[in-house]
Each structure stands twice: as structure tokens, then as C-alpha cells.
């Protein structure tokens, strides 16, 4: 530890608490206290030496030395109160008093002490206070003028000086010069301190600005960018200069521009902080380019507040804004929204499915229970034998329908649970196809629908589950018949494409709306409104087909246009292969937008169901 | 004179059941499976009671009921919903739709007749 640091530490303990935390202020306080303290102490220490050389001092000499205690008292005053300006003024007064006392007794303005009057304003200059400087200057001038006046009117007492005037003059000038030099050093040191502090401050801000990912910008009253921090360059991939003026605004997503401007003008006018989230175009750095697009959008959150928060001004103020990249958060929010919507949709589908299921089971049960109750009450209702037989037949029909509904539900839930077993074996697809079409020929005739089968004789053998194949054909064809108006045509065709059998079922029926087409075949999905009657059934037909096709490693696609008809295409591999993953339904040809617009009125007919 | 019941029901078997049941109890019946036709029949026949299925082709039974209840001349005719919608909340929704009574399928013959009698004796 050097002597200077020890002294510095000692001085620091003398600082008033109010000055301790401001570096420049404490430097000033130190610069005030140090010279006074050490000067006084040195002078007091010199007093005995003076006595030893000169012998008993004159009254003036004693007074002068006694006066040297005053700076110690001033240092104490500053240390206790922290009142820097008062301390400086008192110091100037004390110095002036000493000089005047010595000068009056040693020849007025011609005294060796008079030169010290110059020191008074110099000392005040260190205070960096205009009031102190003005006071000290006036004081020094006043002192000088009064000395001249005293000289002029010969009011001075007889000089008590014994030493020669020349020697004393030299001593006075030399000492004043020395003191002035000390002051000059002090001033230089203070200036350096303040410049260093300024640099420190600037460095700190520069460090912040350089390392902060948030962008700070200043906006004019019309929203134009006056300043934007360098962080914008890293964020948006464009030089800062290109964001000035309306450069930033031009990058804001068109849909978000009103909100962006509103936030800025509200902040400027309302005098309160505003926050806004908006999308902004980012230029993709050259290294990331070549992957499709040259620009993408970031989500930014901008908080802006007026720059001059004066309560009196009514005009718009400039606005300072802090922008932060919130793209990740936004993406998470969007992903969450999507997931929530999907979950809600699945839940709605499930409820819809349950309601439909319940409805489809209750409808045949109503006939079964109703007719059987009538038979039970045959006496009171006076039911003839022929009627009884008819009712028994009706009960039987309803029971059969109920059974098919139950089977459909079972098949579906088996496949949903993943334990529907596929038993692959080689079989000829053509006879299976023709067989199914024959089964449905009666139904087609009832509905007055033409059923056309086009299958070449030379279709090769297919390895797969024949039961599943028949089910696929039955479901597709009965669907097609059901949704085709009287006089329409259902065409079933089979062909070979590569190593796959392609089965196409086309109808000239009502078609499926674009919205419903996207979801057709989704588990539990059934198009249409709950209370509107569609074609009867469970709504499981196409779901079952889709699952069966997937279990065979095949593909199913649906093309449809409202009012024009629907074509379902199923592609099955000729050689059965266990599927690695369930294939998804592909929508090849969605309905025209114009047709989709009318689909509300058509929706009740868009349902796809299992054959009853 | 025998009271007339209009049956709006799109399932043929259920239509036959309701017709036979009501006729066995001495009511006159008239039926349709179509909501628009139902409204026309109500205007033409002025039945004493309407049995309304809710799920119908083209237009739902709830809609038809609203039309009837919106018509000051037809409003007084009681509408009994007979529907396979028997999930939680269905009865409330259907009663709010303006139906005077609600019977869920499968019906009980006794309760069915009793409900009809309650309205038209």
C-alpha cells in the first residue's frame, strides 16, 4: 500500500455521505479538503521552526499563524454538512480576511500579501459553481479596491515590517505562485476525473447497446425512425441505415401496420407507455439462403413511451421504443392453439359419434320394442293373426338392421383399438367384386340407380384378407348407391396399376363439400348437423374402409364435387405387406370454392356411412 | 268425431308402429316423412296433435316445430317430440324448441298412449 492510497483512504473517511456515491462529487470534496488540511498542518508544523529562527513573534505573526487553523475548520464543516458551495464561500472569505489583515499592516496594495488576492477567484474556479466564482471574484476585486482606497487616502497604519520590502515581495509572489500551481494541478486532476467518468459511462452504454438483443429506437411524431440501435441489424439482417425514416415501417407486416402506428401515436399523444406485438420482415442471411424463400417474418413486441414526459406540453412528443423478438413465444402460443383446436375437434367428433350411435341403435329398437309390446297387448288392441305375423316380420327386420349397426360399431372399435386381425391369403378379386355387386344389385334397383361393374377377366390374384376386401367393396358401393339420386349411375371398376390393384367406385350423387371432404374418413367423423336427417346409418362406413385399406398397406383417396358425384379410389398392393405405418387419406381434388359455398344447404347429404 | 294426429317420421317401420298404435286406440292418423310437407299438412288438416321426429331429411323437426309455433293460427296445436336423441341435454333442447312434450325412442307403448291422451283425450 503506497502512501498516496493511505492518504486517499484517510480522506475518503472524511467525505460527507452525500458525496460518497458520486465519483465526481467525491473528487471535488477531496480536492477541497486535501490542500486545506495539509497546508494548514504544514504551516502549523512550521510555526515552531519560525519561532526558533526569529525568536518571539510579533502580534501580527501570531495572528497570521492562528488564522491558519481556519482551513481545518472549513474542512471539518464540509465533512460534516456536505454543503460544498457554502464551504467554498467561507473559504474565500477566510482567505480574503487573512490577506486583508496582513496587507493592511504591511503597506496596503503595495504589500507582498496583495498578490494573494488573485488566488481567491482561482480557488473558487475549482468549485465548478458559478455562484461561488462570482462571489469570490467580487470579493477579490472589492478587497483590491479597498486596499487601493486605503492607500490613496493614507488611512493605513504604520507598517510594522522589519524585513526588507523586496524580500517579502519575492516571498509573497513565490508563495502565491506555488499555491496557484497547486490549484492548477487540482483543476487538471478534476477535469481528468470528470472526462474519465464520462468515458466510463459511455463505455457502459456502448457495452449495453452492443450486447443487448433488444432494439431501441426513437421515432418522430409521424412515426419515422430517427435512431435505431445496432441490435436491429442482427435481428432483421439489414443495415441500420436502411431502417431509418420509413424503412422500419415498410418491413412491418401489412396486417399489423395499423396497430403499429396506433401504438406509436398513442404513446406520443397520450403520454403513457404502450405495448404492441407485430410481425416484421427479416432478410435471411446469405448463408441461410437457397432454401426456398429469401425473407421471413419475426414477431416483435414493442413497448413505446414518449421521450419528453412534460405534463404541460399538449403536442405529440417523440417516442422511444424497445423492441424484442418474441417469435418463439408466439410460435408456442400458435402451436398450443392448434393443439387445443384439434383436441376440441376430436372431442366434438367423439360426442357427435356417441350421439349418432345412440340414435342409430334407438331407432330400430323403437320398432322392436313397440311392435312386440303391441303383440303382448294383442287382446286389448284387437290384433289379428295376420297382423301379428306382419309385426313379427317387422321386428325381425329391425333386429337385422340393429345387428348390422352393432357389427359396424364392433368392427370400428376393433380397428380403433388396433386388434382387427388381417388373415392374408391368395384370392381372385374379380369374383369377390362381382359377388358384392350382386348382393347390392337389389338395393340399387330399389333406388332406381344403375350399378355398372367393370372388371377385366384377367385380373391377377391378390394376396390379402378376402373378408376385408369384400367389406371394402360393400361399404363403398352401398355408400355410392345411397348418395345417388334416382336415375343416377354407380360405376365400380378394377384395374392393375404396377404392382397394385386399383378399385374405383364412382357415383353421380350429391357429392361432398370441400370442408367435409378434408375430414372424411377421420375416425368418428360424420358430416352434417346433428338434428338433420342424413341417409340412415352409423357413419362408420368410410372410416372402416380407410382402416382396412391401411391395414393392407394400401391407399385411399376421395375426389368429389357437390352435385356432380364422388369417386373413391382404393389402391391395394397385390402382394400383402404388413404396413409400417397407417396411411392417411389423401384429398386429391377438393370441390370448387363456388360449390363449397353452397355446401351448408347440402351438408345433410354429405354423410358417409356403412352399409346397413 | 275422431281426433286427428299428424305423424312426422322418416323411418317407415316406426311410422307404421305409430299409425297402428294410434289407430288401434281410435285416432285418425296422417303421416309424412318430410318437414316441408308436414307444414303443409298441418295447415291443410289442422290436426289435433303432432308427433314430431327430430331427425328428418332436408329440414329438422325442430325447425318445423318453430315454424308451427311462429304461426299464430297453428301455435295452439300441441307438438310431441318422439326422437331417438336421448343424450343428456337433448330433452331440454327440444322442449326449448317449442315442443310441448318429449318422448325418447324406444317408446313404451303405455306411456306413449298416455301422453297422447293427455293432450287430446
From TrEMBL, chain A:
UniProt EC number: 2.7.13.3
Residue span, Histidine kinase domain: 356-576
Pfam families in alphabetical order: HATPase_c, HisKA, PAS
Keywords: Kinase, Membrane, Phosphoprotein, Transferase, Transmembrane, Transmembrane helix
Catalytic activity: ATP + protein L-histidine = ADP + protein N-phospho-L-histidine
Membrane-traversing stretches: 33-53, 59-78, 90-120, 132-153, 165-187
Annotated ranges, domain PAS: 201-271
GO MF entry, a single one: phosphorelay sensor kinase activity
Biased composition (Basic and acidic residues): 602-612
Biological process annotations from GO: regulation of DNA-templated transcription
Chain ranges of the PAC domain: 274-338
Ranges for region Disordered: 592-612
Enzyme class: transferase
UniProt cross-references to NCBIfam families, sorted A to Z: sensory_box
UniProt-recorded name of the protein: histidine kinase
Organism in which the protein naturally occurs: Rhodopseudomonas rhenobacensis
TrEMBL record, chain B:
GO biological process terms, semicolon-separated: phosphorelay signal transduction system
Response regulatory domain sequence ranges: 4-120
Claim: Repeat is one of the keywords in the record: no
Annotated Pfam families: Response_reg
Keywords assigned: Phosphoprotein, Transcription, Transcription regulation
Modified residues (4-aspartylphosphate): 53
Keyword NAD: no
Name of the protein described by the UniProt record: Two-component system cell cycle response regulator DivK
